[in-house]
Design a protein that fits this description.
Order of helices and strands of chain B: HHH
Distance between the termini of chain B: 64 Å
Strand content of chain A: 25-35%
Number of helices of chain A: 2
Helix content of chain A: 25-40%
CATH topology of chain A: Sortase, Chain: A
Largest interface: A-B, 44 and 28 residues
Number of helices of chain B: 3
Number of strands of chain A: 8
Largest sheet of chain B: none
Radius of gyration of chain B: 24 Å
CATH class of chain A: Mainly Beta
Number of domains of chain A: 1
CATH architecture of chain A: Beta Barrel
Structural class of chain B: mainly alpha
Shape of chain B: rod-shaped
Number of strands of chain B: 0
Strand content of chain B: under 5%
CATH superfamily of chain A: Sortase
Helix content of chain B: over 70%
Oligomer: heterodimer
Order of helices and strands of chain A: HEEHEEEEEE
Strand order of the largest sheet of chain A: 1-2-3-4-7-8-6-5
Radius of gyration of chain A: 23 Å
């Protein structure tokens, strides 16, 4: 009788230890997702950002292969998100965004670039983990500036509409003329997309802006008024 | 289970505690370096782009080009 009881106790204790182990591993996964991936991504994106800035200083005359910016086009500054500058590269594959950068869309709707005469410069970045570059997207209000910095030009955009929740299938939001934002004419738009609510990706959060002005970069790279 | 491991570690209590610590750190390293990076894309927490299902993507691309 007591042997049976001790056998049951043994099985129960192994089961209990397994359950505790699963709990600890899940806890570690949260630590990994929300902290460790940020550490890695911030390290990688600042490395790539330094590379690109060095390339810019060299006047772009660096020999082939000397500069590996990996399709970087510039830096996004959104004062309302309080996250400094975000390196922007081509493409929105997770593998690229996981480096702690933002990417411009190549599909399903091809993004325009800021220097194009007309179009929508559409970007995506992580809300949490992997740098969490668009974590504070909900703090952006209408009228807030979004500044995109390239080697030679500051492109100053002004936010005119946000869409706090939409389906991930709603690819219309990154159309060249984003009708859902209320605009009907071709213009020079910027669209930020990320997932929402925080810590999940059930829906997408969209912010639209419109180009206000361009400022030439001077030799000190002094920032436009919006960033001071 | 953990009791069994503890009983099979060599040395006195301090040595066993040290080896346990090393084992735990090793497991955490393997989780962070290999297991979590593999598991993460399989979980629906990090999708940030607007994108149709794969069938829609082609249609979206065509339509984008037509405009």
């Amino acid at each position: 009788m007591s042997r049976v009881r001790s056998r049951i106790a043994g099985v129960m204790s192994v089961l209990g230890e397994l359950l505790i182990t699963v709990g600890v591993v899940l806890g570690l996964f949260v630590v990994y997702s929300l902290w460790w991936t940020n550490v890695l991504a911030d390290r990688e994106s600042s490395r790539q950002a330094d590379l690109m800035r060095d390339g810019w200083k060299g006047g772009g005359a660096a020999g082939p292969g000397a500069l590996d910016t990996q399709d970087g086009v510039g830096f996004l500054h959104v004062p309302a998100m309080k996250n400094g500058e975000v390196l922007v590269k081509k493409g929105t594959d997770l593998k690229e965004l996981n480096d702690g950068t933002a990417g411009y869309y190549t599909k399903p709707v091809k993004s325009a670039l800021p220097w194009d005469a007309k179009g929508n410069f559409s970007l995506a970045a992580h809300r949490d983990g992997h740098g969490a570059k668009f974590h504070n997207i909900h703090k952006i209000k209408n009228g807030d500036p979004i500044v995109f910095e390239t080697r030679d030009t500051w492109y100053v955009y002004k936010v005119y509409k946000s869409l706090p929740e939409t389906s991930k299938y709603n690819v219309d939001v990154i159309d060249p003329v984003p009708k859902e934002s209320g605009r009907t004419k071709a213009g020079r738009y910027i669209t930020l997309t990320t997932c929402t609510p925080v810590f999940t990706s059930d829906y997408r959060y969209i912010v639209w802006g419109e180009l206000v002005r361009e400022v030439k970069v001077d030799k000190d790279r002094s920032k436009p008024a919006e960033l001071r | 289970m953990y009791g069994w491991i503890w009983r099979h570690l060599p040395g006195n209590a301090w040595v066993r505690a040290f080896i346990s610590l090393v084992l735990v750190l090793g497991v955490v390293y393997v989780l962070f370096q290999y297991v979590f990076p593999w598991a993460e894309p399989l979980l629906p927490f990090g999708d940030v782009t607007v994108d149709g299902a794969s069938a829609d993507t082609g249609a979206g691309g065509e339509r984008g080009a037509a405009r």
